User: Which sequence fits this backbone?
């Protein structure tokens, strides 16, 4: 119901002789970074390679295939030819029950447990919006190529907060407390245009439509405050917006809090406006209405006209 079975995938390529698999975006980045270190590389070539790396997350399957062939990339381990890009689902599949006829998946995120319990959580909050629920637990992702120590592994602990609001008004009552906070933002437009990240108050970013709404902006600011409080260097902290081609199927806007490490920029926290996607999908699958009701301040009047 969540959509992860059909859409939760990364692109990979295979060694055509031994079948070894490589995550395509990592392969392209590593190959271009290697080319930039060669003695005869020109400034124009370096600029081209850097531009591709910056825009890599936003490229489509066809565009990444074209880059793979343009630079005649081979298997980094054997030098063998590589296949075209293939979509690889990141969920671990399993069989449920003694017969093994019922297929299941290990959860790739903890949030779905919150969504399926929305009705009960709403009752706990006396039927009122907004409210939030938090959960900490293990998640599992069948990564194509686990790497860089504990940064990319197949089993890890996640902490998630789902904050439910009235979709007609995504203002936040405490947004004024953080609106003047300055964040380093790396918007989708900046990435596609090859521009650098910029510093802006979160208030201006919301007002200009760079960040979708006050609620999303408020939590980005709070994430920033938390990370700085626990010791993250604010000069090595930025928020990068997902580009359209990498945006999760459930999100309308998404920003990652990234920290610059010895491995480069690494995602630490994701902050997404998931709209009503998850609740709508679970409602369709189960027939149980997962919605909230509210009392209007004034009746809505309307006129019915019948034409004969």
Assistant:
């Amino acid at each position: 119901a969540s959509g992860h079975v059909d859409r939760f995938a990364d692109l990979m390529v295979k060694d055509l002789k031994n079948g070894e698999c490589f995550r395509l975006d990592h392969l392209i980045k590593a190959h271009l970074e290697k080319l930039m270190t060669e003695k005869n590389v020109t400034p124009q070539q370096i600029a081209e390679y850097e531009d591709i790396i910056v825009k890599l997350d936003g490229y489509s399957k066809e565009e990444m295939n074209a880059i793979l062939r343009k630079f005649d990339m081979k298997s980094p381990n054997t030098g063998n030819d590589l296949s075209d890009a293939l979509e690889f689902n990141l969920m671990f599949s399993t069989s449920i029950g003694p017969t093994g006829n019922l297929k299941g998946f290990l959860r790739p995120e903890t949030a779905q447990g919150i969504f399926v319990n929305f009705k009960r959580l709403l009752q706990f909050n006396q039927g009122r919006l907004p409210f939030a629920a938090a959960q900490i637990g293990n998640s599992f992702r069948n990564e194509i190529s686990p790497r860089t120590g504990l940064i990319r592994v197949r089993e890890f602990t996640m902490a998630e907060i789902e904050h439910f609001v009235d979709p007609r008004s995504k203002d936040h009552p405490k947004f004024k407390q953080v609106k003047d906070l300055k964040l380093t933002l790396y918007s989708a437009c900046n990435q596609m245009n090859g521009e650098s990240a910029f510093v802006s108050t979160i208030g201006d970013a919301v007002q200009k439509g760079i960040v979708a709404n006050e609620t999303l902006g408020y939590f980005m600011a709070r994430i920033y405050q938390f990370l700085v409080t626990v010791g993250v260097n604010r000069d090595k902290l930025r928020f990068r917006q997902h580009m359209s081609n990498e945006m999760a199927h459930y999100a309308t806007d998404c920003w990652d809090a990234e920290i610059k490490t010895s491995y480069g920029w690494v995602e630490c926290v994701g902050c997404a406006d998931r709209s009503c996607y998850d609740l709508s999908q679970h409602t369709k699958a189960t027939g149980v209405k997962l919605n909230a009701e509210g009392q209007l301040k004034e009746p809505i009047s309307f006129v019915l006209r019948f034409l004969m």
